[in-house]
Amino acid sequence: MKAYGFLLIFIIMFPLAGCNNGSSDENSDADPFDDENQVVWEVDNHMSVANGAFFTYFHLRVREPGVNDWEVKSNIKNFDYELGYNYTVKVEIVEIEDPMADQPAVEYHLIEVLDKQRAQEGIYFNVDVYDHQYLVKTGVEQIYEVYGEKFSCEPAMCEAIDSLKQQELSVDLMFTHSTDSSVPLVAKQINCSAPRETFGEECFQEN
Predict the structure, then answer these.
(1) Distance separating the N- and C-terminal Cα atoms of the chain
(2) pLDDT over 50 at 164, yes or no
(3) What is the phi/psi pair of residue 108, to 5°?
(4) I need a surface site. Which of 49, 97, 113, 186 has the fewest CB within 10 A?
(5) What three-state secondary structure class fits 113?
(6) What is the pTM of this model?
């Protein structure tokens, strides 16, 4: 009888153990992110200008580590980007079902900021302003906005920008980073200006 009782207990417990193992394996395989949809990007310390469907605005400049050329991306959700800093970020690429017309088929969601470093001093970059309306004079002296980002300028530079705006000219400006986070850019030079219709030809023609 003792042997029969032991065998009965073993038969009952064996399938229960099998069910527990199956449940444990299923939980261990669960992952909120699919590795195939994740990417690590470097994000540049300044942005590029790109045309949207209805307006022009700044885009992030990103690239995979080890790649030389930058790509532009409109946005990384939940990413608190600051001009003047170089980042390394981990991003999830999310496909959008039935995107609206003129809308991207994917979104980029921040998973983690892996590194953030202040850009070195002496970095200069150009911003093309085809439409003078994207150069906005604020209520603060010597403070302007370009595509929504504040910048400062010396009095003579500010006067030149005012003159170009009054003439409704397109302009190619050179900037550097500021140490003032509330006004992150400094206009250093006017590279070229021209009427919008001939801006590309006059300012960017190959020599």
Answers:
(1) 102
(2) yes
(3) -120, 120
(4) 97
(5) strand
(6) 0.78
